[in-house]
């Protein structure tokens, strides 16, 4: 009833292969986009921007990058945080070496550095698979974080060893650094994330995406039907690391404002991996759902007791928070091992045939 | 309905509902009172860490801070007749959570206490825009001492360069450092690297050899490689800038490798009773520089016991309260309270705002008499701040572990600030340039 697809006839191949062949999907997306572009920015407080809106978008982008590699091409990676770090440090170096550079251009360029490093660490994937590859990417994780600590040139020989985002102006508006307002940063992040998402959806639907999926499902079979595995795996590493690198640059420049090497520690890798797994491997929308759950839930849980006026100490809330988030992750994985994306797909299917299920 | 069982259940149900109603109305009332009380209190949130990997050190500090302010609330009705709301926001020492807490509290807060070098680094540029004073006693960024550049940041009463200067002074007092070798065991993190510029400079001047030995965050608990290096290098002294699990790791490793404990000196964050207690007698002679000292006989301790502990408001215990970190918490809150009092006296209002508190923190004058008046006898050295000097450079004492507790092993040491006044100015200038436009306090002279 709400999601009735009956009567929506396709009369051309073009219409049949549209991004959203079902009209309701397109309407829903329009509503979400309207919220993201107009309603949220107009209503959100500083706190909402800084703790919910911006981080959800950035984490979703990082998870999307990982999902290209792990969900679509089937190459497990535990080095996401390190590739985010490469993006962040590259952006920092670009901005400090070329102060005239447009910050958005710098952010986009910084992904190229992380793509290069990603390909370098992806080479072992041609020979090793599965858990062994995970360990090879783990090596990237440890090596790169170590490099961020030891290579003082990366942080301009700062005594503190941390990178600090300078104030950068673009067309008369502060867009990064402490002077920048949250709403500007939100729009920059949203624009980048929107473009990347469109890119990802199209990539995964095209030749490249199909090649990746074939590689993921059975690499020997893929090779037999003429897919160049080297090309398939390395493009997955390159594109995935590019997106992850851009998200890392956004992470530091549009949100955190400063970063120490251990920010890009393995915890961050796992966090992004959890978002991808809980959201659903091999999906684009799942990354957003996963990010909303992993980033948003703790924030909301933290606010609830004080909003209800329950006198409970902040440390206890934190303990409860960890327990609830942990339990929810297990709960979601048990009821829907294919992630939130699959859950949404099921709901949609049920809605389509409601009220007359088979 | 006449069935007694059903009736019982109904009555029982009714009672439960009544209880529930009472509870909800109490909660609602609490919420109403809570909002009503906002107008008559000063909101001084604390970004506490009672959870996570550093909780063991965080809990005594937070308890000390909370107990002192609760004591003021109970004994004097707050400061200048207005209660202090020292609500905690839990960060678990995570930078991300810390920034979240900062955003959550900044609307009402008159001060922010970030409690970790990572959070301080992130919040520091924001406080300059949001105009909230940042109180980071004994931690944070050493150049914050330059009050003209860092108008909103305070690391009273002592910074890390003060600590390094005092440690070197103490060691020099033990015998000329010329030709000696000092191993600098530090956390490989912004915090651990802080004193390096000064130590390197002094190594050249005083003629000692400096061997920096970093300990990665992942190696904190297993420092065998570092101590092997120390054994090979045979340094005369080991100076440690450690935190959390690193301290206990280093101290046990030092005992294991039979390094003479009297030649092992830590910064104030490495002077936590619990860390040395695990080795007990074997740790005898271990030293830690400190700007706070636990004095169980100080009047303030009796007041805390009377108004807070006996009233059941404290989360602390006897053993913790006799430790260095609990008393440091008290001192930190006392510094904040002095800043508030100074601001109230200057502006003639009890309900001060953030920028008035900034003035207050710039005009703290902790004289010997004032310390005695506050009942903090022997717990903190006298110091004063000014608009150009946000640290105060109180100096401190060398504490020594006597096998069961820390005792004072030196007279009041004063850092030689002229050694690094220039360094502070350059580093502060660099920071301001990197973060341009960075408003500085040009009205400040001296």
UniProtKB/TrEMBL annotation, chain A:
The answer to whether keyword DNA damage applies is: no
The protein's matches in InterPro entries, at most eight in alphabetical order, are given as: ABC_transp_permease (IPR001851), LivM-like (IPR043428)
Transmembrane stretches, start-end: 26-43, 49-69, 76-98, 104-123, 130-148, 186-204, 234-254, 266-284, 291-314, 320-340
How does it sit in the bilayer?
Multi-pass membrane protein
Origin organism is Thalassococcus halodurans
Its organism's taxonomic lineage begins at: Bacteria, Pseudomonadati, Pseudomonadota, Alphaproteobacteria, Rhodobacterales
User: This chain belongs to which protein, by name?
Assistant: Amino acid/amide ABC transporter membrane protein 2, HAAT family (TC 3.A.1.4.-)
Q: Which GO terms describe its cellular component?
A: plasma membrane
Q: Which residues form a coiled coil?
A: none
Where it sits in the cell: the answer is:
Cell membrane
Record's keyword terms, sorted: Cell membrane, Membrane, Transmembrane, Transmembrane helix
Source domain of life is: Bacteria
Which GO MF terms does the UniProt record name? Answer: branched-chain amino acid transmembrane transporter activity
UniProtKB/TrEMBL annotation, chain B:
Keywords, comma-separated and alphabetical: Signal
* Pfam families reported in the protein's UniProt record: Peripla_BP_6 (PF13458)
Tell me the superkingdom of the source.
Bacteria
Under PANTHER family, the record lists:
BLR6548 PROTEIN
Protein's UniProt keywords contain Signal: yes
Q: Where in the numbering of this chain does the Leucine-binding protein domain appear?
A: 47-403
* InterPro entries noted in UniProt: Leu-bd (IPR028081), Peripla_BP_I (IPR028082)
Q: Which family does it belong to?
A: Belongs to the leucine-binding protein family.
Q: What is this protein called?
A: Amino acid/amide ABC transporter substrate-binding protein, HAAT family (TC 3.A.1.4.-)
């Amino acid at each position: 009833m709400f999601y009735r697809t009956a009567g929506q006839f396709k009369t051309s191949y073009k219409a049949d292969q549209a991004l959203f062949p079902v009209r309701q999907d397109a309407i829903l997306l329009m509503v979400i986009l309207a919220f993201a572009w107009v309603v949220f920015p107009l209503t959100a407080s500083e706190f909402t921007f800084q703790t919910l809106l911006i981080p959800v978008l950035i984490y979703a982008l990082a998870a999307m990058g990982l999902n290209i590699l792990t969900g679509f091409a089937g190459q497990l990676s535990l080095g996401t945080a390190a590739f985010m770090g490469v993006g962040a440090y590259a952006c920092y170096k670009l901005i400090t070496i070329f102060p005239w550079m447009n910050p958005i251009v710098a952010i986009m360029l910084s992904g190229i550095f992380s793509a290069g490093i990603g390909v370098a660490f992806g080479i072992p994937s041609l020979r090793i698979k599965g858990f062994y590859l995970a360990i090879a990417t783990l090596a990237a994780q440890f090596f790169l974080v170590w490099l961020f600590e030891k290579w003082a040139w990366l942080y301009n020989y700062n005594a503190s060893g941390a990178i600090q985002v300078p104030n950068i102006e673009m067309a008369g508006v502060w867009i990064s650094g402490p002077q920048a307002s949250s709403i500007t940063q939100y729009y920059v992040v949203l624009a980048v994330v929107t473009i990347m998402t469109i890119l990802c959806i199209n990539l995964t639907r095209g030749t490249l995406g199909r090649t990746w999926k074939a590689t993921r499902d059975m690499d020997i079979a893929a090779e037999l039907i003429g897919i160049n595995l080297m090309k398939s795996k390395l493009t997955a590493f390159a594109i995935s690391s590019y997106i992850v690198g851009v998200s890392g640059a956004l992470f530091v420049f549009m949100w955190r404002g400063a970063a120490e090497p251990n920010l890009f520690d393995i915890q961050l890798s796992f966090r992004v991996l959890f978002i991808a797994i809980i959201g659903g491997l091999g999906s684009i929308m799942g990354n957003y759902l996963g990010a909303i759950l992993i980033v948003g839930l703790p924030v909301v849980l933290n606010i609830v007791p004080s909003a209800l006026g329950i006198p409970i100490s902040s440390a206890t809330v934190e303990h409860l928070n960890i327990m609830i988030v942990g339990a929810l992750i297990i709960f979601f994985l048990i009821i829907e091992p294919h992630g939130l994306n699959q859950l949404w797909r099921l709901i949609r299917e049920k809605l389509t045939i409601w009220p007359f299920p088979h | 309905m006449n069935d007694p069982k059903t009736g019982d259940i109904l009555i029982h149900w009714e009672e439960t509902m009544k209880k529930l109603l009472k509870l909800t109305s109490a909660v609602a009332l609490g919420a109403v009172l809570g909002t009503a009380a906002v107008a008559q209190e000063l909101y001084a949130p604390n970004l506490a860490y009672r959870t996570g990997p550093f909780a063991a050190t965080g809990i005594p500090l937070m308890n000390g801070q909370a107990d002192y302010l609760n004591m003021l609330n109970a004994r004097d009705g707050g400061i200048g007749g207005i209660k202090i709301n020292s609500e905690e926001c839990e960060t678990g020492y995570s930078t991300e959570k810390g920034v979240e807490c900062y955003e959550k509290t900044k609307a009402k807060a008159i001060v922010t206490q970030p409690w970790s070098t990572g959070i301080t680094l992130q919040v520091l540029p924001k406080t300059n825009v949001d105009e909230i004073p940042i109180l980071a006693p004994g931690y944070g960024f050493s150049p914050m001492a330059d009050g003209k550049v860092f108008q909103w940041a305070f690391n009273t009463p002592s910074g890390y360069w003060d600590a390094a200067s005092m440690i070197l002074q103490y060691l020099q007092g033990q015998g000329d450092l010329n030709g000696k070798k000092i191993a600098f065991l530090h956390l490989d993190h912004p915090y651990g690297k802080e004193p390096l510029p000064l130590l390197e400079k002094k190594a050249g001047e005083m003629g000692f050899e400096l061997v920096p030995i970093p300990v990665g965050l992942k190696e904190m608990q297993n420092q065998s490689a570092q101590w092997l290096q120390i054994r090979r290098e045979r340094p005369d002294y080991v100076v440690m800038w450690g935190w959390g699990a690193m301290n206990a790791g280093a101290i046990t490793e030092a005992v294991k490798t039979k390094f003479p404990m009297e030649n092992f000196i830590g910064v104030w964050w490495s002077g936590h009773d619990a860390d040395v207690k695990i080795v007990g007698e074997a740790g005898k002679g271990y030293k830690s520089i400190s700007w706070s000292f636990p004095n169980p006989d100080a009047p303030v301790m009796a007041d805390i016991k009377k108004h807070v502990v006996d009233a059941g408001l404290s989360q602390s215990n006897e053993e913790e309260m006799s430790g260095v970190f609990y008393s440091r918490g008290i001192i930190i809150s006392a510094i904040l309270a002095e800043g508030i009092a100074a601001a109230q006296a200057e502006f003639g209002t009890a309900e001060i705002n953030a920028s008035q508190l900034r003035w207050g923190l710039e005009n703290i004058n902790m004289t010997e008499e004032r310390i005695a008046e506050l009942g903090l006898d022997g717990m903190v050295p006298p110091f004063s701040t000014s608009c150009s000097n946000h640290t105060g450079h109180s100096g401190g004492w060398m504490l020594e572990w006597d096998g069961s507790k820390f005792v004072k092993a030196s007279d009041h040491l004063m850092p030689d600030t002229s050694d690094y006044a220039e360094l502070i100015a350059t580093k502060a200038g660099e920071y301001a340039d990197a973060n341009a436009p960075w408003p500085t306090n040009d009205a400040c002279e001296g």
